[in-house]
TrEMBL record:
Coiled-coil regions, chain positions: none
GO function terms (MF aspect): DNA binding; transposase activity
Origin superkingdom: Bacteria
Name listed for the protein in its UniProt record: Transposase
BP term (GO), one: DNA transposition
Organism of derivation: Bacillus mycoides
Length: 174
């Protein structure tokens, strides 16, 4: 597969967004898998052209919080935590993670990420745990038990828990 510069990725995404071409046709014309192009589009929509900057770009804490807030309040159906790129050696522990209307807690559609540690997280939803969605390494887990069992194979989420959010707690948040 050919490497694409950030400029080439932005050009392809903008061509799709202006309605000039559909995903499959455009992907075929630039010789990239349609799934890759769809990921570029998703990344561009989430953070703009910064999505295609070199791999080790450091973002400010405020920028990261803005992305979390955007995911949380705009119901983007990308999850409360969306991992972009093939992430390595991240630590996601001791968090309280609430899923909005999308019911998606974590979205990670990359296979190659390694060394990520997830544990001691508290997942909340206004629904039974069987209705929550977790996406990890291109696999969607329906329900917390299924997700936890799958993640335990990597040594993750052994101590995390799911709690149904009480209606009275939601009123406190407003």
């Amino acid at each position: 597969m050919a490497k694409f510069s950030p400029e080439e990725k932005v050009k392809a995404v903008k061509k799709y967004l202006d309605g000039s071409d559909g995903v499959k046709r455009l992907a075929r014309s630039i010789k990239v898998h349609p799934g890759v192009l769809q990921q570029w589009i998703k990344q561009y929509k989430a953070v703009g052209e910064k999505a295609f900057e070199k791999r080790y770009t450091r973002y400010s804490l405020q920028y990261k919080l803005d992305v979390f807030n955007y995911n949380d309040t705009k119901d983007q159906e990308s999850g409360q935590i969306e991992l972009n790129y093939d992430t390595r050696n991240n630590v996601i522990t001791n968090n309280q993670i609430y899923a909005s209307n999308s019911r998606i807690f974590i979205s990670n559609n990359f296979n190659k990420n390694t060394g990520n540690k997830l544990d001691y997280n508290q997942y909340y939803g206004e629904f039974n745990q069987n209705y929550g969605l977790w996406q990890w390494k291109r696999k969607t887990y329906k329900g917390f038990s299924s997700y936890q069992a799958g993640m335990n194979q990597e040594g993750n989420e052994q101590h995390s828990v799911f709690s149904k959010l009480s209606p009275s707690f939601k009123q406190i948040l407003k």
